[in-house]
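Supplementary Note 3. Input sequence used for the single-chain structure prediction.
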Amino acid sequence: MPSPAALQPFAAVVFDMDGTLLDTELVFKQIVWDVTRDLGFAMTDAVHGRMVGASHEATNTLLVETYGATFPYTLFDAECRRLMHARMQQSVPIKAGVPELLAELRGRGIPAAVATSSRAAHALGHLGTAGLLDMFATVVTRDDVVRPKPHPEPYLTAARRLGVAPGACLAVEDSHSGVRAAHGAGMQTIMVPDLVPPSDEIRALCTILASLHDVRAAAFGTEMAG
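The predicted structure, written as discrete structure tokens, is reproduced below.
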């Protein structure tokens, strides 16, 4: 694992949302398994792994390619959204280290943003329920860009809204698609793996850290960890 010393100074931080800030990927994985089964198909770890961090369009293409043209993606998507909304309506779990890292950034006057493949209603609703929405200067969702991750547009849009050059931003991700997007935008990129481990290709594009506590330590000194 790369040393925290590999981090360079930065003027802003752009976070992915699901699996990075919000501990939602495992919940959504179970929903995906259940809905796929109820529709008469069999989900696999390999297919699900490719869904993590992917856009609505990329997931549609993946599932139709995997299961055939008869796969009812519109129904699948609507049911997954319905069940996820029901699960997250009362509380949205956050990843370990999120409050500490966001408080550290705010205390140091370092602006933060979110760049997510989720639609605006999902993203703003979940961040609001989690009590995190007011910690971010801007939230870039799927509704704000033409080309979603792995294209760099979401990260470039976040940097533009923050008024910070992409090269001066730190990006924090958990998915392969997100790492490719952030790296493509020219940002210093960290991956904190959630459900999908990094491949050799992904390791070459970013710094791998085990938790957001470690991100805080790497950015601001080892005494900040924990």
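The longest strand covers residues 169-173. The beta strands are 12-15, 112-115, 138-140, 169-173, 188-191, 207-208.
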